[in-house]
Amino acid sequence: MKKFVGYLLGIVGLFLPSIAMGDASFPFWGPLVPCQGSCTSLCQLFVLAQNLINFGLTVLLIVIGPIAVVFGGIMILVSAGNPDRISTGKRILTGAIIGIAIGLASFVIVNTFLGLIGATVGSGGVGWGVIQCSP
Predict the structure, then answer these.
(1) Full-model pTM
(2) How many Cα atoms within 13 Å fall on the side-chain side of residue 80?
(3) Dihedral through CA 31, CA 33, CA 35, CA 40, nearest 10?
């Protein structure tokens, strides 16, 4: 139980910078393709990649993650003392928490990488949530 609380606090700690900065478009349900008709710019391809990653994180954190956590918890609750079901529920909970942590860590890595690229190019840093294409 102590490990579960530690994992939960770790995930909340990963959310806090995103909530404080407020620049990431989360949750993202909007259109995936930024250009209607023909896409002619490479920048629009980066915006498409950004939209796909934001949509994937939204599905992971809002749909799949909570369902897996609830399913693992129900599995433990209805186990009736059966050690196989308890261990299965714990594995599901652990897998869900690790999956959420991997998804959030990948977002942090991509955002950091883009910021470093923007800083070396000279534009003062490029955040993942601020890719803007000029016509």
Answers:
(1) 0.64
(2) 0
(3) 170
